[in-house]
């Protein structure tokens, strides 16, 4: 078996540990579309000829496009921010400020990576003005993902990156395409406040729209797969799927408040 490629970003909901299981359920085809690409664990560990990779986060997509086009020189530039001098509270908040105000796409992208590796838990969250607002994490020597970025650059030559809403990307699919959807997780509690904890609101109506789109595409002969928590609400949401499959491993997930609950993972195959 070939070795798995790790994503170079830390990402909430990342599927690196689940990618073998997900791969084993993805249909084959010439092109994979990922409407919610995040840290791209599935892209990096599949062997489609071509990819259409989308996310609604423009900072993420700009970083991917620069890395795709520029490769090694851009990686070297990103490394210049990973210094001992920059690993202090004072410098972190200064560089976060710089990230929030710069108009230079290269600088903003390199700082996005710096923030991802220096902030609390690698979270990605913005305030209502669109400013990144995650506090500093406590890392003695944040890892610079040189090899992972190089691997991404190489594989990205097969990909096109877009930044739009998932629905418009999915509507572009043709019969030969395979779609893998990894939306923000369905809330473990249905409290109306839940989606506020996410940097991008992904309310229940969007979860419903995604399931409906997969049904529509299925009727047109397009095959898609959705990942989510295996909970009664998602089993109901994906009731029109051809098949639901479950991962045996239970993961401890934070629910509302401070408690953690064991939850299985589900794939809905349309
Ligand atoms: C669970 S993460 C994907 C994780 C990814 N599969 C991985 O392994 O790293 C969900 C992603 O959906 C993106 N997203 C949220 N709402 C979206 C929308 N309406 N359209 C497109 N992308 C969206 C988020 O920015 C986030 O990167």
In short:
With 270 residues, this protein is α/β, with parallel strands linked by helices. It is built from 10 helices and 8 strands. The protein folds into 2 domains: 16-56 and 164-269, Rossmann fold (3-Layer(aba) Sandwich); 64-148, Adenine-specific Methyltransferase, Domain 2 (Adenine-specific Methyltransferase, domain 2, Orthogonal Bundle), CATH 1.10.1020.10.
Quickly list its features.
single chain, 270 residues, alpha/beta, Rossmann fold, Adenine-specific Methyltransferase, domain 2, eight-stranded mixed sheet, 10 helices, binds S-adenosylmethionine
Secondary-structure topology with pairs:
Layout: H1 19-23, E1 31-34, H2 41-44, E2 50-54, H3 58-70, H4 72-79, H5 89-101, H6 105-118, H7 146-155, E3 159-162, H8 166-170, E4 178-181, H9 204-219, E5 223-230, H10 232-237, E6 243-246, E7 251-254, E8 260-269
Parallel strand pairs: 1-2, 1-4, 2-3, 4-5
Antiparallel strand pairs: 5-8, 6-8, 7-8
Helix pairs in contact: 3-6, 3-7, 4-6, 4-7, 5-6
Bound molecules: S-adenosylmethionine.
């Amino acid at each position: 078996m070939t070795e798995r490629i790790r994503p170079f970003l830390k990402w909430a909901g990342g599927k690196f540990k689940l990618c073998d299981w997900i791969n084993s359920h993805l249909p084959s085809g010439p092109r994979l579309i990922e409407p919610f690409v995040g840290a791209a664990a599935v892209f990096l560990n599949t062997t489609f000829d071509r990819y259409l990779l989308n996310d609604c986060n423009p900072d993420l997509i700009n970083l991917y496009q620069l890395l795709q086009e520029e490769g090694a020189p851009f990686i070297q530039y990103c490394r210049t921010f990973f210094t001992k001098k920059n690993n202090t509270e004072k410098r972190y908040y200064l560089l976060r400020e710089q990230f929030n105000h710069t108009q230079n796409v290269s600088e903003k992208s390199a700082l996005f990576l710096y923030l991802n590796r220096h902030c609390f838990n690698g979270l990605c969250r913005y305030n209502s003005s669109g400013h990144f607002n995650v506090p500093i994490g406590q890392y003695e020597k944040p890892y610079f993902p040189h090899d992972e970025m190089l691997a991404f650059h190489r594989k990205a030559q097969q990909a096109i990156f877009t930044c739009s809403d998932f629905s418009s990307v999915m509507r572009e699919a043709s019969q030969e395409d395979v779609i893998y959807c990894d939306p923000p997780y369905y809330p473990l509690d249905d409290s109306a406040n839940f989606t506020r904890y996410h940097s991008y609101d992904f309310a229940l109506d969007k979860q419903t729209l995604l399931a409906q789109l997969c049904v529509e595409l299925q009727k047109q002969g397009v095959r898609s797969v959705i990942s989510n928590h295996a909970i009664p609400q998602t089993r109901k949401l994906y009731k029109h799927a051809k098949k639901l499959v479950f991962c045996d491993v239970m993961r401890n997930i934070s629910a509302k408040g401070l408690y953690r609950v064991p939850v299985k993972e589900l794939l809905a195959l349309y």
